């Protein structure tokens, strides 16, 4: 599968005269114009009107679907567009962006032509080399000269973070994963504690004293945060993920993660009417929260919908700090995004638990 920009018809515009000058007959020119490269055996050609759309398709923000009759449909998920019915997803991993007058200029012997090859970060290097060789051979055939097209390194664009030569082992990637799981497990224990105290009316006995509902919630928040934070801190020390450069950032993100999952635990504990109900709600909340953690284990760009999840900024900061040596500057955006979700989730947990306590 190969993506090209601009479409083949536009590449052929203005090149007919140059092809005739090279000895091509009218029949040859007509045959080139009428050739349907998209239906060639072993080749699926995806044509884009502009280079930006092709880059978005390779990055995954623009989806490509193929209908039953072989036509291609482009769906912009960010704009809320839906996939057409009866279509099959086309995975675009590599594309070539030609200049508008590439064939004509090449046939006329013009020098300094540049072709940009786009590849997804997860595409194997062999695929990139194969496409590069294909373009070079095509240019050689048209111009009749050896390698008339120059491919500088800066024109070889990898969509996403290119880790070639800077690969990270799976062992190093598991460090932020372990920290994240430790923080998340507090959701189950804290939710069970809150649910038990609500069901057994322990909270009612507490409210008989001068303590208020806000005092009860504050106590649970402090307890849950300290337990989760302490456990994560112990694991962090054991796996050697803290350094002199990132210790303050690690403490900040662990505190934010502990408070976030404590808020989720308050919400789950208030919603569950029994042990099975509490367990169901805990799984309902935590399973989607795990998706960003697994996405961090694999190379390539993260899907836009994964970035929306509340736990994505937490795991993003953990990965940057423990794996790639990132600091406050690289993590500022993710921390701000995490703070917004922290306020939303913790606020929802407090409101839900207050209403539950008031109804007893």
List the helices and strands and how they pair.
Layout: E1 2-5, H1 8-12, H2 16-21, H3 26-34, E2 45-47, H4 51-59, E3 62-66, E4 72-76, E5 88-90, E6 94-97, H5 102-107, E7 116-120, H6 125-143, E8 156-159, H7 170-199, H8 202-208, H9 213-239, H10 247-271, H11 275-295, H12 304-308, H13 312-322, H14 328-358
Parallel strand pairs: 1-2, 1-6, 7-8
Antiparallel strand pairs: 3-4, 3-5, 6-7
Write up what this structure looks like:
The chain is α/β, with parallel strands linked by helices. The chain has 2 domains: 2-159, no CATH class; 170-358, no CATH class. It has helices spanning 8-12, 16-21, 26-34, 51-59, 102-107, 125-143, 170-199, 202-208, 213-239, 247-271, 275-295, 304-308, 312-322, 328-358; strands at 2-5, 45-47, 62-66, 72-76, 88-90, 94-97, 116-120, 156-159. The protein has a 5-stranded mixed sheet with strand order 2-1-6-7-8, with helices on both faces. The chain has a 3-stranded antiparallel sheet with strand order 4-3-5, covered by helices on one side. Helix 6 (125-143) links the parallel strand 7 (116-120) and strand 8 (156-159). Helix 7 (170-199) packs parallel to helix 10 and helix 10 (247-271) packs antiparallel against helix 13 (312-322). It starts with a strand and ends with a helix. The mean pLDDT is 78.
């Amino acid at each position: 599968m190969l993506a090209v920009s601009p479409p083949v018809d536009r590449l052929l515009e203005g090149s007919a005269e140059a092809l005739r000058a090279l000895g091509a007959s009218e029949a040859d020119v007509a045959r080139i114009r009428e050739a349907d490269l998209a239906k060639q055996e072993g080749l699926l050609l995806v044509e884009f009107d502009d280079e930006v759309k092709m880059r978005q398709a390779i990055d995954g923000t623009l989806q490509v679907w193929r209908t039953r009759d072989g036509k291609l449909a482009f769906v912009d998920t960010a704009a809320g567009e839906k996939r057409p019915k009866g279509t099959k997803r086309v995975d675009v991993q590599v594309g070539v962006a030609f200049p508008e007058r590439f064939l004509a200029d090449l046939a006329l012997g013009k020098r300094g032509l540049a072709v940009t090859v786009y590849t997804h970060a997860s595409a194997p290097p062999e695929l990139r080399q194969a496409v590069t060789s294909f373009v070079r051979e095509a240019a050689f055939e048209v111009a009749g000269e050896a390698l008339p097209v120059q491919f500088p390194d800066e024109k070889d664009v990898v969509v996403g973070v290119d880790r070639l030569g800077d690969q990270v082992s799976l062992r190093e990637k598991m460090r932020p994963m372990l920290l994240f799981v430790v923080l998340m497990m507090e959701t189950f224990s804290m939710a069970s504690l809150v649910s038990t105290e609500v069901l057994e009316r322990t909270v009612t006995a507490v409210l008989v004293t001068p303590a208020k509902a806000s005092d009860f919630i504050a106590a649970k928040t402090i307890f849950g945060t300290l337990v989760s934070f302490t456990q994560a801190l112990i694991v962090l020390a054991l796996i050697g993920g803290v350094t002199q450069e990132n210790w303050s950032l690690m403490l900040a993100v662990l505190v934010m993660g502990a408070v976030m999952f404590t808020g989720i635990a308050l919400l789950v504990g208030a919603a569950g009417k029994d042990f099975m109900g509490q367990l169901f709600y805990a799984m309902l909340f935590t399973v989607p929260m795990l998706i960003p953690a697994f996405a961090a284990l694999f190379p390539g760009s993260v899907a836009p919908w994964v970035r929306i999840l509340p736990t994505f900024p937490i795991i993003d900061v953990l990965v940057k700090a423990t794996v790639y040596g990132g600091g406050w500057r690289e993590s500022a955006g993710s921390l701000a995004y995490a703070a917004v979700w922290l306020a939303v989730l913790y606020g929802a947990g407090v409101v839900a638990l207050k209403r539950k306590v008031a109804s007893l």
